[in-house]
Amino acid sequence: MTPQEVLQGLYDETLVGNAPRVLELTNLGIEMDMGPETLLFDALIPSLEEVGARFERGDFFVPEMLIAGRAMSGALDVLRPLLAETGAETVGTFLMGTVKGDVHDIGKNLVNIMLEGAGFHVIDLGVQVPPEKFIDAINEHHPDIVGMSAFLTTTMPMFKANINALEKAGMRDQVIVMVGGAPVTQEYADAVGADAYAPDASATVKKAKALIAERRASVAV
C-alpha cells in the first residue's frame, strides 16, 4: 500500500467504524514511517469531522457516532504515546465528568473520544463526580475547560452546585465551564451560569475550540 492508500483507508474505515481495520492501518502507517500527526490530522480527524457533519445533517445517529468513535479510540491508543514523544501540541486541556448522583456516561464518553480526536488532552473524572472532586482536579491539572454532564433532570441542579463551589474556591474565572446532556438546554445553561452549552459531541468540539481561541485572543490583547 502507498501512504496515500493508508490515509484513504483510515478515513473510510473510521467512517464506517471498522475498528480492527483502523487499528491494522494505523500500525501499518507507523511501520511505513508515516508520522503519527499525519495519520491523525490527514485521516482520522477529517473522518471524525465527517461523522459529526453527517450526524448534524441527520444522516448518522448516535450508534454510528459511537461505532466510529470506538474505531478511532483504538487508533488513538496506539498514537497517543507517539504523539507525546514528538511533542505534538494539544489544542487545550478538557476536564470532564458526569455530575454527582448520575451514573450515565455513554454521551460523556463519546464527547471525550471526539475531543481527543480533535487534539484535546482529555481528563475524565468518570461518573458521580462531587463538586470537591472537580475542584481538586482543577487544582491538579489546570484545565482550559471543565465539562459537566447530566442525563437525569434530577441531577441537573448539580451544575449550579458545582459552579457555586468554583466561585467559593475563587476558581470561577480560571476555567471555561461547559454543560451538556440529554435534558439540558441553552436556557438552563444560562440560568446556572455556565459559559457554554452544546447539544451533542460534534457541537462540543466546535464550541470548545472556539472558546479557547477566544480566551487566548483576549489574553494576548
From TrEMBL:
Name recorded for this polypeptide: Cobalamin-binding protein
GO biological process, one term: homocysteine metabolic process
Listed PANTHER family: METHIONINE SYNTHASE
Naturally occurring in which organism (per UniProt): Aeromicrobium chenweiae
InterPro entries named among the record's database cross-references: Cbl-bd_cap, Cobalamin-bd, Cobalamin-bd_sf, Met_Synthase/Corrinoid, Meth_synthase_dom
GO MF annotation terms: cobalamin binding; metal ion binding; methionine synthase activity
Keyword entries, A-Z: Cobalt, Metal-binding
UniProt key word Metal-binding: yes
SUPFAM superfamilies, alphabetized: Cobalamin (vitamin B12)-binding domain (SSF52242), Methionine synthase domain (SSF47644)
Pfam families in the record: B12-binding, B12-binding_2
Annotated family: Belongs to the methylamine corrinoid protein family.
GO cellular component, one term: cytosol
